[in-house]
Design goal:
This protein has 564 residues and is an alpha/beta fold. The chain has helices spanning 11-21, 85-95, 109-124, 155-167, 172-184, 233-248, 268-284, 315-322, 362-377, 379-389, 394-406, 416-430, 435-451, 457-475, 485-500, 505-523, 546-563, and strands at residues 26-28, 34-37, 49-56, 73-79, 101-106, 129-134, 186-194, 212-215, 226-229, 255-262, 288-295, 304-312. The strands form 2 sheets. A 6-stranded mixed β-sheet has the order 1-2-4-3-5-6, with helices on both faces. It has a 6-stranded mixed β-sheet with strand order 9-8-7-12-10-11.
Length: 564
């Protein structure tokens, strides 16, 4: 187990201290795991207090939702363990005035017992207290009665509605009514790609195979209702969204809001993909999604996975969700961009896009396509090399560029300068990162060199040198820096030396391929001075530069094509 903690026994206290230290609107009750609003007014004139809580490990819930317009207090237990009734009672007594208090409880036995007992004690002291139980996990619809389902991420939406109603001055009965109604119109379901690790246990609660996922799980590291094969995001979203919409009996034209919740270990990139799919599929069902929020709002420690929540809304409920709040973890307004696409400026069309390839250009086209095939075949090799000393994207990037060149229209092969410019345009559009600009710049400089003369062997050698010089200028590298130049520059010299003594291009490129191969091999012993490999320092030694190896691969393809 690798976690950024000190003593697991002090984890909750230290976590709360770190969180509250960054939230000026909150205070931490001395010697208790209870977070309160700093701006609490005297009890006799205070509005309805809204409290929630439960086991820790669900951050930013629940302390992150303490603030004006949301929770008045949050009570934290140990990781995945309900707080004691005494802790809940301390929180209640700290914030409950004559207006009373509402407890929002996720439907777990420990939470219901401890929050319920504390409420009963406070009622005995003459304070009005209501409890709302959230049971939004639709994964259990075929397993237990609706009232016994678990409470999961949709609870955050109930926090917001109840907190906004209390903030505007509604009485306890009305706040409780609104929260209960929201809980009844709420459905959620989650999935896990990988389990979480509880700090005290030091190991996962269940194990998944490489191609397995867990469907319909709670938020405490427990297994779900069933195991399923890994599938694309669209298929997984369909499973979750269908279960929720069907359980709520949402019909075409009905209004709702969407919550896409990360379970702690899911990057924003993946959550946004899930949000895209969920919005598209909800709209395809005819649902009117009024708001959507995406992020880690109620986690399960470091679990990789997500949950979806849908809440039926009308104007009144939407107004409560839109009401301002000072809670630090509330993600914002949730308004959707209904007109998000702006037409790009049109690229000037090249003339004679479908003109036949001149006979004298067939050889160049054949050689170029052989290079593209070689780059596609080398994707896995280059990905592995780049991942060992870089970011692992080179193989996929060059394969995308190869596909773009293969797709060029016949008119792109009108003459050598036009062909090189067309290839430069193709790789520039297809490849991001550094490879695209380097290859596009080299091809454009070579095209300009060929445009000034003929396409004989000496001109080809000059064009290759010009490409090498252009790449060096653009990146600021030179030979010995452990880059693609450690293969390209020796190859360019080999071509130049070969044609200078009268050798034809097939022999020149055979010598170039050998020089590039030797240069790529030598790069393994060069300390990296530029690029991501430079961040590894001596740890990169022994691994040839992936960019240099790529040069040797496409030069080998040229040499073989010229010999055939």
């Amino acid at each position: 187990m690798k976690k950024l903690i000190n003593d697991p026994k002090a984890l909750v206290a230290e976590m709360l201290e770190g969180a509250v230290r960054q939230a000026p609107g909150q205070v931490l009750l001395a010697d208790e795991s209870v977070v309160l609003r700093r701006d609490a007014t005297p009890p006799n004139i205070r509005r309805v207090a809204v409290l929630s809580g439960g086991g820790s490990g669900h951050e930013p819930a629940h302390a992150g939702y303490v603030g004006e317009g949301m929770l008045t207090a949050a009570v934290a237990g140990d990781v995945f363990t309900s707080p004691s009734s005494d802790a809940v009672l301390v929180g209640l007594r700290a914030v409950t005035g004559e207006a009373g208090a509402l407890l929002i409880v996720k439907n777990y036995t420990g939470d219901r017992l401890n929050f319920g007992l504390a409420a009963e004690i406070l009622r005995g002291e003459g304070k009005p207290v209501e409890i709302v139980v959230v049971a939004d996990d639709v994964a259990l619809r075929d397993t237990v009665p609706k009232a016994r389902r678990r409470g999961i991420a949709g609870t955050v939406l109930v926090h917001k509605i109840a907190g906004a109603a209390a903030e505007r001055g509604d009485g306890l009965r009305e706040v409780a009514r609104l929260a209960n109604a929201a809980a009844a119109d709420l459905g959620s379901m989650g999935l896990a790609l990988e389990p979480c690790i509880v700090p005290a246990a030091g190991k996962a609660g269940f194990a998944l195979g490489e191609s397995e996922i867990e469907l319909g799980l709670g938020i405490h590291g427990e297994p779900g209702v069933r195991r399923a094969p890994m599938q694309p995001a669209a298929a997984l979203v369909e499973i979750l969204l269908s279960a929720i919409a069907d359980d709520l009996a949402l019909k075409r034209g009905e209004r709702c809001v969407l919550l896409v919740n990360g379970l702690g270990g899911t990057p924003p990139m993946e959550l946004d993909v899930v949000a895209r799919e969920a919005l598209a599929q909800a709209e395809a069902r005819g649902l009117v999604v009024e708001r959507a929020w995406t992020g880690t709002l109620l986690s399960a420690l470091d679990m990789r996975g997500c949950s979806l929540s849908l809440l039926r809304v009308d104007d009144a409920r939407l107004a409560l969700l839109d009401a301002p709040t000072g809670a630090p973890a509330w993600p914002g307004g949730g308004h959707l961009n209904r007109d998000m696409r702006l037409a790009a400026a049109e690229t000037p069309a090249r003339e004679e896009q479908n003109a036949p390839v001149p006979a004298e250009m067939e050889a160049m086209r054949r050689v170029s396509l052989a290079v593209m095939s070689a780059m596609g075949a080398a994707e896995a090799e280059l990905t592995d090399l780049d991942a060992r000393a870089g970011d692992g994207d080179l193989g996929a990037s060059l394969a995308r560029g190869a596909e773009a060149v293969r797709a060029l229209p016949s008119g792109a092969w009108a003459d050598p300068p036009t062909a090189l410019r067309s290839m430069a345009d193709a790789v520039r559009r297809a490849i991001g990162g550094s490879s695209g600009p380097f290859y596009a710049t080299g091809l454009m400089r070579a095209a300009r060199e060929l445009a000034t003369g003929t396409s004989d062997a000496r001109s080809v050698a000059a064009a290759m040198k010009a490409a090498c010089d252009a790449i060096a200028e653009l990146g600021g590298a030179q030979e010995g820096d452990r880059t693609m130049l450690d293969a390209l520059c020796p190859a360019a010299r080999a071509v130049s030396d070969s044609v200078a003594v009268g050798e034809a291009l097939p022999m020149a490129f055979a010598r170039a391929e050998e020089a590039a191969r030797n240069g790529a091999a030598a790069s393994a012993q060069m300390p990296p001075r530029l690029g991501r490999a430079s961040y590894l320092g001596e740890r990169a030694l022994g691994i040839p530069d992936a960019g240099a190896v790529a040069v040797s691969i496409w030069l080998r393809a040229i040499a073989e094509a010229l010999r055939s």
